[in-house]
Amino acid sequence: MKIPPCLRWLLALCLLACLPLAVHAQAQAQAQDDTGQSLLASLDAASYARMDGAIEAIVASGDERSRGWLEALLGGKLQRHKETGRFVVVLENRGRNWPVVDALTGEALGEMSRRELDRIGINNALRGQLQSVLAVLDLRVDDVGARREAARDLLGRVDEAMVVPLQGLLEDEADAEVSRLLAQGLAIHRLEQGDAAAIESLAGSLNPEARAALSSAARSDDPALAEAASSALADIEQKLRLNSGLETLYFGLSLGSVLVLAAIGLAITFGVMGVINMAHGELMMLGAYTTWAMQQLLPGQSGLALVLSIPAGFLVAALAGIAIERGVIQFLKGRPLETLLATFGVSLILQQLVRTGISPLNRTVVSPEWMSGSLMINEGLSLTLNRLYVLGFALLVFAGLMLVMRRTRLGLEVRAVTQNRAMARSMGIRATRVDIMTFALGSGVAGLAGVALSQLTNVGPNLGQNYIIDSFMVVVFGGVGNLWGTLVAGLSLGVINQVLEPWAGAVLAKILVLVFIILFIQKRPRGLFPQKGRAAEG
Amino acid sequence: MIPSSAFRSSRWLAASLLSLGVAAPAMAQEDPIKVGILHSLSGTMAISETVLKDTVEMLIEQQNAEGGLLGRQLEAVVVDPASDWPLFAEKARELLAQEEVDVIFGNWTSVSRKSVLPVVEELNGLLFYPVQYEGEESSENVFYTGAAPNQQAIPAVNYLMNNIGVERWVLAGTDYVYPRTTNKILDAYLKSHGVADEDIMINYTPFGHSDWQNIVSEIKAFGSQGKKTAVVSTINGDANVPFYRELGNQGIDAADIPVVAFSVGEQELTGIDTAPLVGHLAAWNYFMSVDTDTNYDFIDAWIEYTGDDMAVTNDPMEAHYIGFNMWAEAVRKAGTTEVDEVKDAIIGVSVPNLTGGYAAMMPNHHITKPVLIGEIQDNGQFSIVWETPSTVAGDAWSDYLEGSKDLISDWRAPLSCGNYNVVKGSCGGSETQ
């Protein structure tokens, strides 16, 4: 399908060369509007196949507004007013009425409704073409970052017509990284044309596009080419093996960190206090909704809102926890079965409250810019940023909690009360107050988990349900009452799960992990790190 | 939850007095026509089903504003089966036996439909089922207004094969009946078109799966073998959000490995930042972005009804719109709400759909629909890139599965059979699962 006429790329270069000349007098404006109008009209009229040519015509026109048009077209924001046939650019396309500006003059036209406008649609093939056109333009900007981005975009997209201009650009390129990427892009193209010499320059590259090109070359009819490609591919596979091991480890740790976050609050309320709180998941849900509410309060500042929702999520969940403790749990002390049922009821009530109060639908929580995308370690391995942050956050929360339990008065009192309630009371510790504080702490941490989860999964009424079983599993596996146990258990379960998943499938991997835990508990009923001493025997 | 009928009828009495003046007293004496709504308002499925309940209520309100049906007003009877499959059967029984509703609009998941099926058949009710499903079923009492596999999955795969040139396929789904049956059909279909075994990767995940790192990375590896690869996703509901997020974060671009989804619509996208997903595909029979006046009217009515400027419409809502209008038309044609007569009258009824054409009820209780392929846009809407030249009639029994390809369904007399085996020449052919 990719058969763009050869001239396009030369014209693209012309466009930039012509820009300075485009300074024009007022009198020319009218004439220019007419050409602009006809350029856009040809875009609009054509079928997808013919839009190809219309895009080239726009690039070739050398019109200084063409970049804006192409970007608007790429974003689906270039539209035509049905009645007047006027082309407009939609600035914001959510909701019913959209603010628009004239595509030719840039004049603001107020708001228009969807009904009045006709969108100029594109498909994936055209999107690819537009991206390459824009990438070639980007290769000439001063910003090195943008040039690298553009060169990376062009990998695997180079076609016959681009070769000459790209070679020209490659010669003038000052940045080594951009040059390397461009050279690779050109080599991939040469390989696709059946040039065995190109394999040399691709050898050892971990880039998926290079690998794809080598794989198809390895299947080619030319035996020499196929063999050279296969051996280059074998080298790459060797390198990738280490990569994929590291990747699995990272996947496991990041899944584990989510489990730790979800379980660590429970490790306090269930592990330390012995309260089976089935509403733990819903406390996480409250934390996630706090993040959403924060983003509603601070529109457009998703990063700040996320940072602020860390304390806010903690507070909201802690307060809810206090309410649950005072309202339900304190009356059911020492009756675990009834506590279990009552808190399960509370969890249902909280879920339905959110459903009727806010909405049964999931809420959108935007990931701030600095949390999207991934951190590139090498070309074959990149770590997704949001999970990296969550991993760090989990470790921070864990460290903070350890500090509280080991180094503060509250931690001391909590440990005293759980070890021997009567003795602690006779030493003047207000056990009831400690109960409240402990429960609030555990609930607050659940809220923190919710804030983190809002970046990974759905924020909806069912959020908590999905994690409650896993949380209990981690706490029991790690050893009830031991925070270190929770950390080790969470991380190792995550890694085990991710190691099993590729060959067992997601469903079976989950089952295998459960079976493993059941067998483990048979052998060591107190988990990985059992509590020692007299307190544990009670 | 259900307003007392006394309150309802007095309100309607007032309404009809206002609108009809002197004629009102005579009309108001007649009992209202009862419309049962069987959608989960709590539990996991509330996310998808609540809007469908609202849709039917809105349609009833509109119908009443136009004077009702056969001179009688319509009354909605809403029950909440709470995403609990056995409860669906009980609630259906309550609607039919106690409330004596004339028709039911309801269900989302296939498993809930299967649980309701025996009840509706036993008590001779009418059920309109609005969601795309796996086919392999035809009941005398159920009308399937959502897409059968040949109205969604097969055309989407054809599009990928012919227009995009896809050669390698990942079939990813949630682990339950709809994805498994659909993938079985697709697997058979792809192989019949010469796709090799090693070029198909099938993957199932549990409901609500949230950790997609490994699977997405596998897809990436599967797709970097030099052949054009696409993912056909029957992943259901909530699990899509983390799936798409992971796709975006691992940098899988729609231009490299497009994902075509059968269960992701405008409603599901409201929970996602769609900027990294631009260009991924979905196959439906309706998109909110369809450019027709009937659609804009429907959207305006919906926004007004919900009072939410950002409210979205989706494919199952259109299915209810079509189903409701078909039923109303059949009632008008039969002159009664008697189930048996409506059932006969509805076959062949044709009403406008929202995409600018007409939907007709076929003898197999499925309807005709256009198939649209849309690409996700950054505003959570779809841009339509391809559509079938004409509407496609729903096929109850797939032509690509052994044991099912010989079956046809025709509920007109004298055949009146949902699984007629054309080879054996007898009704009651094999059930395939």
TrEMBL record, chain A:
UniProt-recorded Gene Ontology molecular function terms: transmembrane transporter activity
Endpoints of the signal sequence: 1-25
GO BP term, example: amino acid transport
Record keywords: Amino-acid transport, Cell membrane, Membrane, Signal, Transmembrane, Transmembrane helix, Transport
InterPro entries attached to this UniProt entry: ABC_transp_permease, ABC_UrtB_bac, BCAA_transport_permease
Keyword Isomerase: no
GO CC annotation, single: plasma membrane
Main localization (coarse): membrane
Bilayer-spanning residue ranges: 249-276, 304-324, 388-405, 472-496, 502-521
Membrane topology: Multi-pass membrane protein
Places the protein is found: Cell inner membrane
Pfam families for the chain: BPD_transp_2 (PF02653)
PANTHER family linked to this entry: ABC TRANSPORTER PERMEASE PROTEIN, BRANCHED-CHAIN AMINO ACID TRANSPORT SYSTEM PERMEASE PROTEIN LIVH
Family to which this protein belongs: Belongs to the binding-protein-dependent transport system permease family. LivHM subfamily.
Protein's name according to its UniProt entry: Urea transport system permease protein
Automatic annotation (TrEMBL), chain B:
The protein, known as: Urea transport system substrate-binding protein
Keywords: Signal
PANTHER family (alphabetical): ALIPHATIC AMIDASE EXPRESSION-REGULATING PROTEIN (PTHR47628:SF1), PTHR47628
InterPro entries listed in its UniProt record: ABC_urea-bd_UrtA, Peripla_BP_I
Signal peptide: 1-28
One protein family per Pfam: Peripla_BP_5
The organism's place on the tree of life at top rank: Bacteria
